[in-house]
Amino acid sequence: MNKSLLRDIPKVDDLIRSSALAYLFEDMPRATAIEAIREELEALRRAVFSGDIEAMPSQKSIIENAYERAKLKARPSLRGVINGTGVVLHTNLGRACIPAEAVAAIVNAARGYSTLEYDVASGSRGERYSHIEKLLCSLTGAESAMAVNNNAAAVLLVLSALTSGGEVIVSRGELVEIGGSFRVPEIMESCGAKLKEVGTTNKTHISDYENAITEQTRAIMKVHTSNYRIVGFTETVSRQAMAETAHKNGLVFIEDLGSGSLVDLNLFGIREEPTVLDPVRAGADVVSFSGDKLLGGPQAGIIIGKKKYIDILKKHPLTRAMRIDKLTLAALEATLRCYAENRQLEAIPTLRMLACSEQELKEKAERLAAMLNESGIRAEAVAVEDQVGGGSVPMQLLKAYAVAVYTDKLTPEQLEKKLRLSEPPIIGRIDHDRYLLHVRTIEQAQFECIASAACAAVAEG
Ligand SMILES: *Cc1c(COP(=O)(O)O)cnc(C)c1O
């Protein structure tokens, strides 16, 4: 350790009185400035102790570093990032990007008073779900609809209100855990319902359901195996057969659909993902799905089905605890209107990203690579595969393109870290010792930002 260097560290009071500080920290509270100076000096002290510096920086540069430190602290914690992972519904990055009109609807509802629970025609209290119910019914063919905070809440509500104290029959192949701690068996237990597993992991027959029905049975439930597939010799029972068996025995047929797409994903070359219309047509009584997965809207748990059951759900005390807020409701209505007006493929970013062809992605990657090349950074378009994400369609990868960025000065890991720590953070991935930015989830308008961040990263070395 260099003792004279330690003595050279300026005093907090000297720095606080300096004119450079007054000038730089003009737009910040004095307490923030003092705290930042203290932290900067502490960092310097540690650097001297560890032998990381050989000369004391000037007072001006210490103040400038403190200012950068204060600015970093003042920025919001929840902020935008550039998603270069190619995972369209990235749960950690906020799942669906909502349509522009949904953003406008949120701003409008947030800013002032609204018709949230007010019926203008009669001048009296209205229903919170009225803004989305008709839209959902006409889009899905269901009799009735409502929404709660998210699909996990929707499942909890449906089971609590319709099956509590009884048994629910579920196929063993559908006992899923979805992200973290959402497990069907545990959810059921917490709702006061008893799970009755039938069939085996790979095969379930209609007779398995029939034989499991007792006096205690309340419902037959189907859970969409969103995030995994059992492949090989498998057999599942059709929804129609499940609905018929349920109704013959006076039971409710419930489906947790998970992603809940309103468009046929075959359009994008994605096979075997049901649409919300499938269970409704097959006679399901209650169907729930997420608002922010393939629907491409805000986080919500949408519940559709027979009026008789939805009415029970609307009155259940849990509904109040899981109540959908006005901002979400505004965004959800606007998103559903895109479908109702048949503008979904242009207006909904999730669908737009999924619809991007391999050729379009190749050209997009080449444009980004060219922009990086012009800034003196080596980059090229490479073929990759993207994921839908959000636990949806696990087995099917989408043909895609990424930009591989190469530098002699940094390892791919160092480049990844530098870009992740830039503002806004750029989230890429490393594959086969290459740093990759998948372009499907990046907007053209973000290209310049990526180029300048990459330049800065390389220049710093
Ligand atoms: C994603 C998912 C859920 C949970 O939905 P959230 O909206 O994230 O709460 C429940 N069930 C299935 C089958 C899912 O895929």
Structure characterization notes:
The protein is built from 20 helices and 18 strands. The chain has 461 residues and is of the alpha/beta class. The strands form five sheets. A seven-stranded mixed beta sheet has the order 5-13-12-11-10-6-9, with helices on both faces. Strands 2-14-15-18-17 form a five-stranded mixed beta sheet. The protein starts with a helix and ends with a helix. Residues 150-152, 155, 178, 182, 223-224, 226, 256, 258-259, 290, 301, 391 line the site of pyridoxal-5'-phosphate.
Short structural description:
With 461 residues, the protein is an alpha/beta fold. It is built from 20 helices and 18 strands.
Q: Going across the major beta sheet, what is the strand order?
A: 5-13-12-11-10-6-9
Helical stretch count? 20
Low-confidence stretches: none
| Sheet/helix structural class | alpha/beta
- Average pLDDT, rounded to a whole number, is 92
Shape: elongated
Reported for the largest beta sheet, the result is: 7 strands, mixed
* Strand residue percentage: 15-25%
Give the N-terminus to C-terminus distance in angstroms: 27 Å
As a whole number of angstroms, the C-alpha radius of gyration is 28 Å
Helix coverage percent of residues? Answer: 40-55%
* Beta strand count: 18
Ions, cofactors, ligands: which are bound?
A: pyridoxal-5'-phosphate
